[in-house]
Amino acid sequence: KHDIKPILGCELNVCSDHTVSSREAQHLVVLASSQRGYENLVKLTSLGWVEGYANGKPRIDLEQLAAHREGLVGLSACMGGYLAQEVLMKGEAAGRAAMARLRDCFEPGQFFVELQDHGFVEQKPLNEILVDLAREFGLPLVASNDCHYLEQKNSQAQMVLQCIASGTSLT
Description:
Elements lengths: L8 E7 L10 E7 L2 H16 L9 E2 H6 L4 E4 L6 H9 L1 H14 L5 E5 L7 H15 L3 E3 L11 H12 L5
Parallel strand pairs: 1-3, 4-5, 5-6
Antiparallel strand pairs: 1-2, 2-4
Helix pairs in contact: 3-4, 4-5
């Protein structure tokens, strides 16, 4: 009625092997671009909870993502994302390998390198590396913000939800 098209998506936790419980998971934003994409997103979310749950988080691995990639669009996520963490923790060469793996998990043209600036010291050099790598791979960039609520008055509710999710007290 108002010419608004919803974009359904999820911030998935990805790791190198969902069967190893000690593997840490990092963020990856996945959006559905079609009905088939929505079905694959539901499948991946379910796999994370049923097969990959560890350390209090549902997780999938990149093999699972690639197997269910039809109709999906990927965004590399924030500084807590798989790609950013590879760059920050292991360097540019590891970031290059991670970018290639992520690109290959999606259909051609369906993976975007996400840039954010929240004023963190690491953000500027990270963004510079991500821009250089994206150009090297011919991948498009997208500027985003790590938003969790629309208005400041909703910040308390967001904090409560985070406490529930992490099993911690508001105090």
